[in-house]
Amino acid sequence: MNNLTNQIKASLLSYYKFKIGAKLVATEVATNHGTADVLVLTKSMKVYEIEIKISISDLKNELKKNDKNTEYRKWKYNYPSPNKYYFCVPSSMLEYTVEFASKLNNKYGVIEYRPTKYYMNRFRIIKKASFLHILNDTGKYENAIIQRIDNDLCRRYSLLYPIK
């Protein structure tokens, strides 16, 4: 995975957890859109999925995601759907991404990533996402996020302190 993508992920996790005060944050959680780069469960129990894109070609790959496949994933695996969906992109991609997101789904939002010294100042919402739905799938998300955090913690400890 690209180093810039990882820097943005780490910054988003810190931003939403410590500045916004989210209840839970995690990476790589399965949703009906695919696998979320970052998933946020807010204190008001709303779920935000944030997809990080660092190039125009990466963004265009979103078009390859088929709506039928999304519906199949939701039905077959009972994946919940986030309340809001954002693209997070570097400043250089803003204009294209706002237009792209509006065409793909006018409810999608766009977050600008700026590589400043402090993570608190790295993000700016350029296009606010609208609610995709107001259903309450948060129980499913809460469990999925907790499992993901638990798996990450175990994996990181086993890398730091290998069992001999």
Word description of this protein:
The protein has a single domain, classed as Trna Endonuclease, Chain: A, domain 1, CATH 3.40.1350. Helix content is 41%, strand content 24%. The chain has helices spanning 3-19, 56-60, 67-77, 94-104, 138-160; strands at 24-31, 34-41, 47-52, 84-90, 109-113, 123-127. A six-stranded mixed β-sheet has the order 1-2-3-4-5-6, sandwiched between helices. Helix 4 links the parallel strand 4 (84-90) and strand 5. The chain starts with a helix and ends with a helix. 29% of the residues are buried.
Task: Describe the structure concisely for a colleague.
The protein has 164 residues and is an alpha/beta fold. It is built from 5 helices and 6 strands, in the order H-E-E-E-H-H-E-H-E-E-H.
Tally of contiguous helical segments: 5
* Strands in their spatial order, largest beta sheet: 1-2-3-4-5-6
Counting helices, strands and paired strands, the structural category is alpha/beta
How far the N terminus sits from the C terminus, by CA atoms, comes to 29 Å
Number of strands: 6
The share of residues in extended strands comes to: 15-25%
Radius of gyration, CA atoms, in whole angstroms: 16 Å
Considering DSSP H and I runs of 4 or more, what fraction of the residues is helical? 40-55%
Q: What is the architecture at the second tier of CATH?
A: 3-Layer(aba) Sandwich
User: In one word, what is the shape?
Assistant: globular
Tell me the domain tally. 1
What composes the largest sheet?
6 strands, mixed
**For the residues shown, what is the average pLDDT?**
85
User: H/E order of the elements?
Assistant: HEEEHHEHEEH
Q: In CATH, what is the class?
A: Alpha Beta
CATH topology: Trna Endonuclease, Chain: A, domain 1
User: Which spans of ≥5 residues are poorly predicted at pLDDT below 50?
Assistant: none
